[in-house]
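Worked example 3 (structure in, sequence out).
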């Protein structure tokens, strides 16, 4: 079968476009899958911690203390230097 040079060029462009769509789609799918896996892992860790906390009063106090330390660490990260020496203020 004879293919004109113009038709060969169109077939090559079409094949390249299909290949580009496949590659871009697989990359986007991989990124979306990784994001969902990370979110699923975070949710599983939090739910596991909550389940652990409510098994006994000691565990509840332990998890509550860890949550309080995490909150204070977060506040310390948000703090900025105040106008006076050694003063730190929260950014609102």
């Amino acid at each position: 079968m004879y293919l004109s040079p113009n038709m060969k060029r169109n077939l090559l462009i079409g094949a390249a476009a299909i290949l580009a769509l496949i590659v871009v789609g697989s990359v986007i799918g991989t990124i979306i899958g990784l994001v969902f896996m990370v979110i699923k892992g975070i949710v599983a860790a939090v739910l596991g911690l909550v389940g652990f906390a409510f098994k006994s009063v000691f565990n509840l106090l332990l998890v509550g203390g860890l949550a309080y330390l995490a909150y204070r660490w977060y506040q310390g990260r948000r703090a900025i230097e105040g106008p006076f020496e050694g003063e730190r203020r929260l950014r609102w």
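Notes: The mean pLDDT is 88. The longest helix spans residues 5-53.
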